[in-house]
Amino acid sequence: MGKSDALALNAARLEMGGRDGEKNVLQAIMHSGLGSLCYAIKSRVKSEERLIEKVTRKRKEKEKYDVDSVTDVIGIRLITLFRKEIPDIVREVLALIAHGKELSPNPFQKSCFEEIIIYTNAPHHDPFLAQLKEVLSQAGAAFELKESLEGYSSVHIVSRICSVAKLRTDYGEKKHPLPIEIQIRTVFEDAWGEIDHRFGYVQRAGKNSGTPIHNSALVQPHLKVLKHFTDACAHYADTILVSATTPLISKGEQGKIISVESDDDILKRFSELNVAANFITVYVEGRKLREEASKISLNQGAQHPQTVSAYIQAAEHFLQVRQAGERELSDGQGKAQYIYYARMNEALCLMSTEAPEYVQQAVELYTELADLYPSFPLAKFRLAQAVAKLGQTDPAIELYQSAEEAVEGIASVSHKTGHWPDELPLADYTHVSGALPKLLGYQLWKKAEYIGSLPDHDIEERTSLLYRAVMVTSKGLTARPDDIKIHNNFAYYATQYLELLGSLGGQPDSALHAQLSSSLSVLEHHTLSATNPDIFFLDTIAKAYQHLGRSDDAKSVAERIVQLVQEGGNQGEPEITLKILKNALTIK
Questions:
Q1: Which of 504, 507, 474, 506 is nearest to 491 (CA)?
Q2: Residue 62 Cα distances to 46, 116, 179, 475, angstroms
Q3: What DSSP character marks residue 390?
Q4: Which InterPro entries does the protein's record reference (predicted)?
Q5: Chain CA centroid to CA 262, Å
Q6: What are the beta bridge partners of residue 154?
Q7: Residue burial 85-109, b: 16+ Cβ < 10 Å; e: rest
Q8: Which residues contact 455 (CB under 8 A, 6 or more apart)?
Q9: Residue 109 has what DSSP assignment?
């Protein structure tokens, strides 16, 4: 029998064996519950003709390539609606192959993971990639990450099933366990992949990697544009999923992230420490990307996909800046400062996305920075912000207090000497001294609110927390006497505390009443004459009026709140707006 005849015979036997194996695998997928996790399932077996064509093509590069080298005789494609579902499906596939499922018979050879490849065009910070890597690592499965030049993204798992095909060899026949390739991708990636396969399929390995097989290379630019659209759709679908199934990060006092306006001083310090000019230039480019992302956030909203994408691009840039600095800068204070600020900016961009998965990455970065630079309080302050964004109130309070102690320690010396160290430049101190009291006060108030919501709660603990919130926030007023938001927070907390103190029979605090009246006066001047006032400020004013016995004034403000809500005025989160509206209606 000639080589071509043997190839045709073996291809036919592989196809026949593959048909039976395909049925067994599909049954296993459905019976194991894996099928219910998928939006759609596709399968195919390479035909005799396709097998012969593939072997013939591959032999041009590898002379000994034969049908037993083909790893996708059986092809299964598991399709999801969302990228976020892929890691769970990968976990289930690995469990099925490892015989971790109660399934008899199991068609797979136990724990046979011949090859696992993640094809991706995603950035390094993509939580999707991090989660995929974690799933594979937990399963003890070796994998390869391949960045796709043409934008292809999918997870490929090559395994073997127990079914065999008898293949003719030069020495007789051998039993060949049938190979199977399982692909996991989104419905958007699947649609793009079908078009790519038909009109622009390229070689993904070898010296001709990236070269179209069937069609003109002119198709490739159009496919790349289409890929950008499908990627955007996939990301937007995930945004919808997150919005529908998980609560958004609170837009309270931890919601807005403001960078420290000290970059020019930082650049000057880099030069003083002999950081090369080209490194300073790429740092400045990252700053511009961050500023552009901030502008998009102001126009589109913090959690808009365009905002998130812009911040991730900036984070990626600072990651590359940091890696280049680690590789190429000489050890010394200049390198340490440069790496510190590059990483701080990387984490700041991640935190500014408002997306929990990216905020978690920021937490990890800030934690490392706080350990590596223990005398730099800004790192601990930012870590507190990131932790607070994830709803971890107690750790946030502890971190804010630790940062506050460190800041006050450095400031007490610097105020006397007039010199501000690298650990806390004057610009950092100016920013933190105003922002930290506001943010710490909010976390203390938030904890007091939680305790107050518990049945049979400890009223003394709640009172103590409110008092601490008032006292901490008053420090912010000292640092930023013109900050209307700090005045609002102080008046709100003070009103609650004084009312609670009165209900417990405590003595009136005349000094605190005087401070409350002062902040209330600032709020009145800023808010009551405004055309479209902030209903949060109006809510604070109404409550303060009630506490001070100014019932008619409280009713007037409450009526304005109701009118603003009806007209769709300057409002915030629906849940909080509803709470304010209910309070206004009780006053009316």
A1: 474
A2: 20, 22, 19, 74
A3: T
A4: NT_sf, RelA_SpoT, TPR-like_helical_dom_sf
A5: 26
A6: 119
A7: bbbebbbbbbebbbebbebeebbbb
A8: none
A9: P
Q: Give pLDDT, residue 206.
A: 54
Q: What is the pTM of this model?
A: 0.65
Question: Could you write out the three-class secondary structure of 393-447?
Answer: HHHHHHHHHHHHHHHHHHHHHHHHHCCCCCCCCHHHHHHHHHHHHHHHHHHHHHH
Of residues 243 and 522, more confidence is placed in: 522
- Whether the predicted pLDDT of 248 surpasses 50: no
What does the block give as tokens for 146? 């391949």
CA distances from residue 165 to 10, 39, 65, 483 in whole angstroms, order as listed: 8, 32, 18, 77
Residue 166, Cβ neighbours under 10 Å: how many? 15
Supply φ then ψ for residue 33, to 5 degrees: 90, -5
Residue 292: per-residue pLDDT: 94
Residue 283 near residue 338, CB atoms below 8 Å: yes
Strands 144-147 and 74-80: unpaired
> Which residue bears the tokens 């900036």?
314
Strands 40-45 and 154-169 come out as: unpaired
Report how far residue 447's alpha carbon sits from residue 449's, in angstroms, rounded to the nearest whole number.
5
Q: Containing H/E element for 85? A: none
Using DSSP, state whether 156 is helix, strand or coil.
Answer: strand
Measured CA angle at 240 (ends 238, 245), to 5 deg: 95
- Lookup: tokens for 65: 């390539």
Q: How far apart are CA 56 and CA 434, in angstroms?
A: 72
Least reliable range by pLDDT among 2-16, 20-34, 228-242, 311-325: 228-242
Structure tokens at 573: 């989160």
Question: Span 346-367, mean pLDDT?
Answer: 91
Distance CA 540, CA 543 (A): 5
**422-334-417 Cα angle (round to 5):** 25
My answer on whether omega of the bond before 508 falls inside 30° of 0, hence cis, is no
Are the CB atoms for 362 and 352 separated by under 8 Å?
no
The alpha carbon torsion through 159, 160, 162, 163 (nearest 10 deg) reads 130
Q: What does the DSSP assignment read for 271-322?
A: HHTT--HHHHHHHHHHHHHHHHHHHHHHHH-TTSHHHHHHHHHHHHHHHHHH
Q: Residue 465: is it exposed, middle or buried by C-beta count within 10 angstroms (0-12/13-18/19+)?
A: buried
Is 90 exceeded by the pLDDT of residue 92? yes
564 burial (CB, 10 Å; 0-12 / 13-18 / 19+) is: buried
Lowest-confidence region among 136-150, 204-218, 491-505, 556-570: 204-218
One-letter amino acid of 312: I
**Treating both helix axes as pointing N-terminal to C-terminal, what angle do 551-567 and 535-547 enclose, rounded to 10 degrees?**
160
- The average pLDDT across 566-585 equals 78
3-state secondary structure of 175: strand
- Please give the structure tokens belonging to residue 502: 């009165």
368's tokens: 């490392």
Phi first, then psi, for residue 184 (nearest 5°) are -125, 125
pLDDT at 213 over 60: no
Percent of the chain with pLDDT over 90: 59
Residue 166 forms beta bridges with which residues? 175
Domains of the chain: 3-237 (3.30.460.10), 482-588 (no CATH)
Residue 204: partners with Cβ closer than 8 Å, 6 or more residues away: 119, 146, 148, 152
